[in-house]
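I am still getting used to backbone structure tokens and would like to learn alongside you. Would you supply a protein for us yourself, any chain you care to pick? Start from the sequence, derive the backbone structure tokens from it, and show both lines together. Go ahead whenever you are ready, and we will take it from there.
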Amino acid sequence: MSDGVGAPGGRAYRARRRVGSAVGRWLPAAGGIAVLALAFAALGAAAPHEEWQWDLPPGFPRPRVPAENPMTVAKVALGRHLFYDTRLSGNGTQSCATCHQQARAFADPQPRGVGSTGEVHPRGPMSLANVAYASALTWANPNMRTLEAQALVPMFGEEPVELGLAGKEQELFRRIRAERRYGPLFAAAFPGEADPVTLVNITRAIASFERTLISGRAPYDRAEHGDHAAMSAAAQRGEQLFFSEQLECFHCHGGYNFTGTTDDVTKGFPEVEFHNTGLYNIGRGHFPADNPGLMAFTGRAEDEGRMKAPTLRNIALTAPYMHDGSIPTLEGVIDHYAAAGRTIADGPHRGVGADNPNKSEFINGFELTAAQRADLIAFLHALTDSSFITDARHANPWLDTLAARGRPRRPE
């Protein structure tokens, strides 16, 4: 996810209806009963005004949801369509799903994001797995707290360009109104509005869909709740290493979502953390100019290089790693932390990351045998939730319909 600025040991540590006349207004222009059938097929068997029922993994609390945007079945269905629709880019080439791919736990295989105009971004798109629990949504912006607000950044941001909709708001609305499926979907999601196709409603629907992207049924979770055979012996040994004071991984990647930046209905206040991991040390304490981290927002020198620790759920699927995709493998990430920071021998970014004066107190280095490294990798793979990346409820709702019509698969 974009920041919204230009490029400038143990287990004790683990936290635990109705459619009504609004739709009727769309039917003559939208194709009548056939279109309504498409809309209800997307919604499923439940009534479109039905309140969203959370299907939460064991041990997961309810996410906190803004009072002004309550979750409904109809809103989630609309948001899913918008999330996968390339109409939401200025040139019609990209959707939200272009950089947040289900097979990658809604992350991007690119080291850094590439926008619809080909512009390369300074940071990589983060996984959206469990984004409903994120108390800060991007790598370094402490002020980006709601999914509704964040959705505006890729749509309309210009430095860098992502979806490239700046100045094309009316074109966006025209495209949406021209797609016959959207009429019933918008009317069901926002009943009583004479013209529900608004920017506020678009962002509320996308945010509602994104809050359903909850992952918590990996082998680790099954083992945690009694199915001890779900994790291999190697992964179980790796778990002990991960939660040990020797490695200290859990200090920044703890709790049910394996990150310290978390919010839910059980918390009195959101937890927000940013860390400097010694990834760079240019000169004395500096990071590349296009990635100063939290300092870009606070102006404080000691915040240079501090970034959000992302969730480690599905981490084996979200390579390459770090905010700029500069470490390609999990093995490389372990090398980085074992050395207490990365050493870059030459080039413009040369420096000894372990000596960065702003580095987190938890990055102290460690030694592992080859067998222990393999065990730690096995544990990280045990955080992969295969059901999440294949869940049809999260998949592209456009493909089957477009194929049946014999049309190109334009929306992703």
Summary: The mean pLDDT is 89. Residues 11-215+388-405 form a domain with the Cytochrome Bc1 Complex; Chain D, domain 2 fold (CATH 1.10.760.10). The two ends are 18 Å apart (CA to CA). DSSP finds 17 helices and two strands in the chain.
